[in-house]
């Protein structure tokens, strides 16, 4: 009997996943589903503006891909545990900027950005990834999971607030 084969390398982010190219993401259906609550033209314009940021040109890096309040445990004001590694892959590091919009407020977001010092394109891709996740989460979970629906609302509000400056 042969031993099991080991993977040749780390798992790459698949098209449509958070570590993959934004060019593979389609949020048109969720935007249409949010039409009674938000202006679809505005959501589309914000999405397309950040989605147009240049692609990650560096080598793929390890990412968690799902860093939001439901997967981060804090003790005494310090991050203590990171949960749910199901999106673990290598890809665009912008995927791990999700907490900026899905967890932190304006001053916290500014401090997070200053500490990580991402370039402008990475920041825009991170914002697009958080926005895309929020746009998809709100209509999907609106009637079934209040926590994840609220996460979607929070992400949409944070991105719109930052874009409005």
From TrEMBL:
Domain (Aminoglycoside phosphotransferase): residue spans on this chain: 7-127
Segments for region (Disordered): 1-24
Biased composition (Basic and acidic residues): 15-24
Entries under Gene3D superfamilies matching the protein: 3.90.1200.10
Ranges of biased composition (kind: Pro residues): 1-14
InterPro entries listed in its UniProt record: Aminoglycoside_PTrfase, Kinase-like_dom_sf
Name of the protein: Aminoglycoside phosphotransferase domain-containing protein
Classification via Pfam families: APH (PF01636)
Signal peptide (from-to): none
